[in-house]
Every structure is written in structure tokens, then in C-alpha cells.
Amino acid sequence: MATIKLKSIDTRAPKSADKETYKAEAATLKARIGELQNLMYAESKHALLVVLQGMDASGKDGTIKNVFSAVNPMGCRVIAFKKPTELEMKHDFLWRIHAQVPERGMIHIFNRSHYEDVIIQRIHKWVDEKTIKQRFKHINHFEQLLTETGTVVLKFYLHVSPEEQLKRLQQRLSDETKKWKHNDNDMRERELWNDYMKAYEDAFEHCSENAEWTIVPADQNWYKEYIIAKKIVDALEALNMRFPGLKQPE
Q: How many distinct structural domains can be found in the chain?
């Protein structure tokens, strides 16, 4: 993958983009995701893994809620990866990740993922640079295994601006319905913004061999949701799935 510099990528939709048009198209795409998920569940030959990464308040939760609004809950799971537990820390860093990949017929959505192990752990120097480089290789092999065994892997980085992030973090303090999301540590992590951008850029460069990253402008939810929904629909339609016929009696 070509070198990505996040500073050179806009966090907003093109000025020519019409909000209402994109919202209408996104609504159609979301409904189509529901249809394709039902088809994938019935055919049971493929799986979809959606990886969502981004800074705090980049909109991961809203993306899950809105983009997958038409999906049957029976065919979809959301896994939010938090700080590793004591048990998880006793295993290799992919142990807890591999246990959560989707079975055939299912959509699994990772709200944060194995990339935390080469982003936040790197920034806070919880592991050394040699380990980070080894993990890049392990991630590529892991994603190769998934793609070669029927799992479509779509990785999205929600590209929010520092200004929009600050606005959203401040809203968590003023909105009664969002105060529960507030975490004092989010503001401290903002001070490491440039370090985060560099770490993400490095991950994009070294971990795109088997599943490329999509950098999604995330300052405007209506555009973000359109980009993600379009990518998912295109990927699932490319599988040329078919409903199975009647099962033959054994």
C-alpha cells in the first residue's frame, strides 16, 4: 500500500457533496446490507469481519448502530476490545482476537481490534520496537489466514479532525445522554495526537497485504456512513452469493 499521510486526507466530505443525496443513498445501501447479510447467513460459505479503528469520539459506536441498522441480530455480533484481562495477557496478543472471528454466514464487527496492540502499546512503550515489527508480520499472516478461508476482512480508519474530536468530547460533558461516555483519559490521549497519527500511518503501510485499509472522513456522520456502507455492499455483492436450494433428505 502506498504511504499514507493522514494530514493530507480531508476529514470532511467534498464541498460538492450534497448531504441529502448521500443520506438517501446511504439508506438504500444500509437496507441492501440487511439483504446481503440474510443471503450470506443462508448460504453459509462466507463471513464478514469489519474492523473499526479511530481516535476516541471518531464515531465507532454510531457507525455500528446506524450502518448495520437493517441487519438481523441473529447474523451479526459486535465485539469491543478493551484492555486485555489477566488471562489474555498470558497468551499471545492474537489469542483473544482469533477467538472472536466470525464463523461462515456471520458478520462480526470489531470495535477496536488487534491493531490496538501496535498502536496504543507502541505509543506508551509497553512493548519495544522489535516486538511491534514482529506483530506487523503476525497480523499479516493472521489476516491472510482469514481471507484464504472465506472471511472478507474490511478495515476502516475513522479519520476525525482534532477540532471535531474536541467538540464531541466536550459534548459528552454537557449532554446528559452522553456523560456516561466521558473518560478523563481521553483528553490526556489527545496530547499524543501526532504520535497516534504516525503509529496509524505505520500500521497502514505495513499491514495492508491481505486486507487494505479504507480511510473514512469522519467529521460528518452522513458521509462517513455512506462510505462504509458502500464498501460493505460492494464487497458482499462481489461474492456472487446464492440462496441454497431444498436440503436433500439424509
A: 1
